[in-house]
Design brief:
Layout lengths: L2 H10 L12 H9 L13 H11 L19 E4 L2 H9 L8 E6 L16 E10 L3 E9 L2 E8 L3 E7 L4
Antiparallel strand pairs: 1-6, 2-3, 2-6, 3-4, 4-5
Helix pairs in contact: 2-3
């Protein structure tokens, strides 16, 4: 099983934010794996937390942080930060769905800064499909408050990471 398959399995289990002050236990657990205080609610951004949970369940490298940009880390696998290289690798099929994490810029101001700025807003999800010439379909958490597949512009990708198994 790979990260994408695990994320899709959690989606089938309807891991999503809950209303009226109730929290989904999988998201609470995912936050705890990222060293967030016990009981951190599911309203707190959880895209990185749920990806960390998937990686932990599969014994793969993980960022251990709830920050999306924490996945921009060469120690976690093969990291690609050059936008032209990422686009070319998507175009020729070198980046295949499974264990490819895409890290996106998000928001205004600091959220638009480059990949080398770790303390800025971002979003993280798993590559599912490349829609030529300018969109990627990703599966991830905290997309419309649930795990879902959605499209993002390729120009918003800060980095791609092919996650490795833990030795």
């Amino acid at each position: 099983m790979n990260l994408l398959q695990m994320m899709k399995r959690l989606a089938k289990l309807q891991v999503r934010e809950r209303a009226a002050g109730r929290n989904h236990p999988a998201i609470l657990w995912a936050h705890e794996l990222c060293k967030m205080p016990e009981g951190t609610p599911d309203e707190v951004a959880w895209c990185s937390s749920i990806l960390n949970l998937c990686a932990a369940l599969l014994n793969m490298s993980r960022s251990q942080s709830a920050a999306a940009r924490s996945w921009i880390d060469v120690s976690l696998g093969t990291l690609i930060t050059d936008p032209n290289t990422i686009h070319a690798m998507l175009d020729n099929g070198q980046l295949k769905p499974g264990n490819v994490v895409l890290i996106f810029k998000r928001g205004e101001g600091a959220g638009q800064l480059g990949w080398e700025v770790k303390k800025a807003p971002g979003h993280v999800a798993l590559l599912e499909n490349f829609v030529m010439p300018d969109r990627v379909i990703v599966c991830g958490g905290n997309q419309s408050n649930m795990i879902t597949s959605t499209g993002f512009p390729i120009e918003d990708i800060l980095a791609a990471l092919v996650v490795k198994e833990v030795q």
